[in-house]
Design a protein that fits this description.
It contains twelve helices and 13 strands. The protein is α+β, with helices and mostly antiparallel strands. It has a five-stranded antiparallel β-sheet. It starts with a strand and ends with a helix. This is Carbon monoxide dehydrogenase.
Length: 266
């Protein structure tokens, strides 16, 4: 490691002010992605601004058909929240299967979304549930938030403060995980709500995406058989040492079917 300034503001506007004044500073939440890159010298911020003590970013509320989760809430708390389990059990289930116990106790929903790892689980939930990412200055629809590999619509000093999830009639997530990292080789979140069926896939491409073929099929028949009957093109999917593009294409409808099974079980 190397020397850097460490700050722990108690208010969101104070945290933003530091990054606005210092372009080399970075927000620090759970540190599950940032600290390893710093150890490898792939990132060398001059200052870390710890946002985990900002009280307004640590709340979970359910009101008016919306589950609002503060950006500094860790995965373990989402997974164990009685309110989330009751209102959106598929989201609590997803949070409980991120990484391992140590990661779930430290990692935060805001940090996961800001990093936008191509194989992260939370982006699939945010996109499939048509959530809204709330920042210190605006509200960003899920369809507009994820732009590409590790790329989001956030400005350099913009801070995620909360995520708002509309309630769903049924929602579930399933992933085929890398046994070493527990990241999703492919992960699929399915959701059926008042606006229809939405499906989001993570781990299979450069960024989370919505497979229109699956959404069309499940809009007609929200069933395991309908999901598994869809053929996904491998043309734009990842191919690496872990799996070919064709294998990932094969996994998507299979996992969509399993996600429906999980959704129906809640």
């Amino acid at each position: 490691m190397y020397t850097f300034d460490y700050q722990r503001p108690g208010q969101a506007d104070a945290a933003v002010a530091v990054l606005t004044a210092n372009g080399d500073a970075k927000y620090l939440a759970g540190g599950q992605s940032l600290l390893p890159t710093m150890r490898l010298r792939l990132a060398q911020p001059s200052a870390l601004v710890d946002v985990t003590r900002i009280a307004s970013m640590k709340d979970i509320t359910v009101s008016g058909g919306t589950v609002t989760i503060g950006a500094a809430v860790c995965h373990a708390r989402v997974a164990s929240s009685a309110d989330v389990k009751k209102a959106l059990p598929g989201l609590a289930d997803l949070a409980g299967r991120i990484g391992d116990r140590q990661v779930r106790e430290r990692g935060t929903i805001g940090g996961s979304l800001a990093n936008d790892d191509p194989a992260a689980c939370y982006p699939a939930a945010v996109l499939a549930l048509n959530a809204t990412v709330v920042t210190d200055r605006r509200r960003i629809a899920a369809d507009d938030f994820f732009l590409g590999m590790y790329e989001t619509a956030l400005q350099p000093d913009e801070l995620i403060t909360a995520v708002e999830f509309p309630l769903a009639e049924r929602a579930g997530y399933e992933k085929f995980r890398n046994p070493a990292s527990h990241f999703a080789l492919v992960g699929v979140f399915v959701a059926k709500g008042v606006t229809g069926v939405r499906v989001a896939v993570t781990g299979a491409a450069a960024s989370v995406f919505r497979p229109t073929e699956l959404e069309a099929a499940l809009s007609k028949d929200f069933s395991v058989a309908a999901a598994r009957g869809v053929k996904i093109s491998p043309d734009t999917l990842n191919e690496d040492m872990h799996a070919s593009a064709e294998y990932r294409a094969h996994l998507i409808p299979v996992l969509a079917g399993r996600a429906i099974e999980r959704a129906n079980a809640f």
